[in-house]
Amino acid sequence: MTASTAPRPGRVRRAAAAFAIAAAAALTILPPTQASAQGADPQRIADHFAGVRTMTGEFVQFGPKGEQTGGKFFIERPGKIRFNYEEPSDFRVIADGQSVVINNGRLNTWDLYPLSKTPLKLLLDTRIDLSGNKVRSVRQDEDLTTIQLQDKSIFGDSTITMMFDPKSYELRQWTITDAKGKDTTVMIYNVQEGVAFDPSVFTIDYARITEASQGQGANRGK
């Protein structure tokens, strides 16, 4: 078993991209001023999304090379999320409001990062603040409203593209594009809102991670 408790910037971005909910890839996007003229209000849509305190459902994820996996997700604001990946992936991703842990069940490894160093921090806040030029572009289509965000203090050189239903403002999917232009795309379905979760759903076993880290250090000393 291996564990990591020190955040490494490049790996944080890759991990966040690999395990975030994501949307369809590149689109021809209108400038924010033109989109606003058509009625798309990014902050209003973000406020509606942030108003959903709990959410659960299923997802399908597509990686940069077209690899596909899926599973179930759970969200509770502020700061809590869980992805249970189905076989053969056997990954779990858990955020408890302070940290994000990525567990590879097959390799029995654990990687721990501060939630504040991942794009999930913005999306799981009580309020999603889109001020300060975070909105890079907006596109208003008949069946989708697409908002692309970029903030180096949160995403580094990555961007996140969120897609919403233009009438209900429900989140359909989102994409994280890394600095090399590679997309991780996840679509969500069978979504339920206002669900009560057992606290254990978002519990991170820090003692187990510490034990794994100490065991790794002991093995290196032999």
From TrEMBL:
Residues 1-37 form the signal peptide. Keywords: Lipoprotein, Signal. It holds the Pfam family LolA. It comes from the Bacteria. PANTHER family: OUTER-MEMBRANE LIPOPROTEIN CARRIER PROTEIN. This is Outer membrane lipoprotein carrier protein LolA. It comes from Aquibium carbonis. The lineage of its organism: Bacteria, Pseudomonadati, Pseudomonadota, Alphaproteobacteria, Hyphomicrobiales.
